[in-house]
Amino acid sequence: xxxxxxxxxxxxxxxxxxxxxxxxxxxxxxxxxxxxxxxxxxxxxxxxxxxxxxxxxxxxxxxxxxxxxxxxxxxxxxxxxxxxxxxxxxxxxxxxxxxxxxxxxxxxxxxxxxxxxxxxxxxxxxxxxxxxxxxxxxxxxxxxxxxxxxxxxxxxxxxxxxxxxxxxxxxxxxxxxxxxxxx
Length: 183
Description:
70% helix; 3-stranded parallel β-sheet; 183 residues; mainly alpha; two-stranded antiparallel ribbon; 5 helices
């Protein structure tokens, strides 16, 4: 009986401790996409990326134009060049065209993706630091990303994080025409 009574008391203590610990945990959620979009607008990330993309596009276009011009030149010389020289130049041109299609262009696409990531990392770091600061200041144990949450029963701290980042409480969104609207 003594052992049974002791076991029951330990069980009740364990259950009540778990309930007390669970009650002290404060859970919040934040709309990360909304904040990232606002930060991108504030820090002109889209303009920086478009400028970089324009530079890359100009260089790719220049290379394509050079290859096209060389192809047209070579076509014009087909009947005037010795067959062996024409074939060597044609093979060289075909190799460079293939390299452009299979190496240069895909590398450019990867470089553009890397540039977008590079531009977004400082924004993510700012946002993560703000979320952590808001969570600590307000006693949150967990902050969930709203976009990955099936049920958001905790407190929405999006406005607090926006305020911490120096953004307006309401999100500024860019519609297709590019003019900001308040949400």
